[in-house]
């Protein structure tokens, strides 16, 4: 089992946990570890599920695996595999190109303010992940693809935006895409509750 080396430090992107019985995932940079334990405990009770006595340890272990062990240690010395979410380069390219309707419509972009707000959510999200494979081989191709679609536009967190594990898109591009075009493409995986796409759909933007 993995634990944080310094339990008082907030992990990159915040504490995370997934309830396997329902598939519900929790994450948030604004929650302390105690806050996350309380939130997950309340959810489990509300859904008639038992709260594990070692829930704090399970949350630590899940978080460490989600962030590929950054700032964590294997406390029992038995676990050597840390799972890392990644998007393949092929999936990233295909996912980004699915917003072709936006390109064909003349590349209208959302406002700088909205792009910045979206990027703030993505940069701390557990699903903002690297692409697998040869990074030097991909960087030039990705740079050209991003440049083709957004030109010189840059959100406030542009340098920290990578690939979305949920939809397979380049987040540096997607934060600039109008909602009407995003809504036309179903994500390959369910979006987390905190995703700005869900919020904007609910707000009718």
Overview of the structural elements:
Strand 2 (15-19) and strand 3 form a beta hairpin. This protein has nine helices and six strands, in the order βββααβαααβαβααα. It is 41% helix and 10% strand. The protein has helices at 33-46, 55-66, 89-97, 100-104, 112-123, 135-150, 171-174, 179-182, 196-203, and strands spanning 2-4, 15-19, 24-28, 72-74, 128-129, 163-164. Helix 1 (33-46) crosses helix 2 (55-66). With 205 residues, it is mainly α. The strands form three sheets. A two-stranded antiparallel ribbon has the order 1-4. A two-stranded antiparallel ribbon has the order 2-3. A two-stranded antiparallel sheet has the order 5-6.
Main traits of this protein?
two-stranded antiparallel sheet; 205 residues; mainly alpha; globular; 9 helices
Poorly predicted ranges: 80-84
Residue share in helices? 40-55%
Overall residue-averaged pLDDT value: 80
Please state the structural category: mainly alpha
Using only C-alpha atoms, the radius of gyration works out to 18 Å
Described by the principal axes of the CA atoms, the overall outline is: globular
N-to-C series of helices and strands: EEEHHEHHHEHEHHH
Number of strands: 6
């Amino acid at each position: 089992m993995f634990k944080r080396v310094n339990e008082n430090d907030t992990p990159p992107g915040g504490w995370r946990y997934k309830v396997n019985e329902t598939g519900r995932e929790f994450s948030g940079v604004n929650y302390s570890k105690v806050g996350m334990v309380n939130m997950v405990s309340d959810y489990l009770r509300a859904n008639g599920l038992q709260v594990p006595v070692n829930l704090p340890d399970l949350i630590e272990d899940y978080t460490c695996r989600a962030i590929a062990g950054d700032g964590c240690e294997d406390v029992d010395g038995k676990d050597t595999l840390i799972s890392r979410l990644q998007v393949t380069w092929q999936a990233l390219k295909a996912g980004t190109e699915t917003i072709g309707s936006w390109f064909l419509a003349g590349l209208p972009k959302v406002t700088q303010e909205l792009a910045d707000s979206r990027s703030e959510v993505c940069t701390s999200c557990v699903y903002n992940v690297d692409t697998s494979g040869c990074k030097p081989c991909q960087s030039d191709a990705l740079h050209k693809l991003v440049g083709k679609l957004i030109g010189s536009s840059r959100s406030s967190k542009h340098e920290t935006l990578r690939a979305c594990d949920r939809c397979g898109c380049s987040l540096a591009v997607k934060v600039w895409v109008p909602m009407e075009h995003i809504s036309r493409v179903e994500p390959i995986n369910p979006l987390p509750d905190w995703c700005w796409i869900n919020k904007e759909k609910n707000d009718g933007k």
